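Supplementary Text 2. Reproducibility record for the structural model of the 216-residue chain.

All settings were left at their defaults, and a single model was retained for analysis rather than an ensemble. We include the record here because the model underlies the residue-level annotations in Supplementary Table 4.
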Amino acid sequence: MQPETVLAPVRAFLPCATPPAWIEWALANPELLLVDHANCEKKAASTALNLMYRYVEQPRLLQKLSRLAREELRHFEQVFALMQKRGMAYPQLSASRYAGELRRQVRGNEPGRLVDTLLVGALIEARSCERFAALIPVLDPELADFYSSLLKSEARHFEDYLGLAAALAPAAEIEERLAALRNCEARLIESVDSEFRFHSGVPAEMFASGVATVRK
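Retained model, structure tokens:
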């Protein structure tokens, strides 16, 4: 499958593209990029496992997220291997505001809580896939090849989360919740962050200079 075939539904799903300012920020922080990427893979596996523990009565969810958790841990192992090959340390990093802010939008009562959690998962996976694609043309060959290898699985993870949510609620409810979550996601991606992370917004100096893009 060609990269553009994989990426088309991802880009259609997201509310905006990654700003060029974030790509410049990533290139200025190559070690932070890999360290936080490793953290994101661990968090993605943990999220899938937590859902499997919480919703044991959902056989389709258990099947999909078991596979997803295994793949995310494999990706972590691959990122960590790259870090070791490059002689990098693995420091503790604070989490970005991205996932936490999205999860604050999740409804508190079931089944809305599960539906929203799955939709948030779809947005996070889609954004990760889109950012890999945005970075590939500007990274060193080894890292570009690695990120290219992740596109298909990350796109499938997005579709898995979205499909699980769509099976639990009417289409009108899904669209209503996605509209609210997309607005939040776009705000987080396009606004200013003080620290670079894989899912951060843009740095203040680049935002002020007009490098940041406009939402589509």
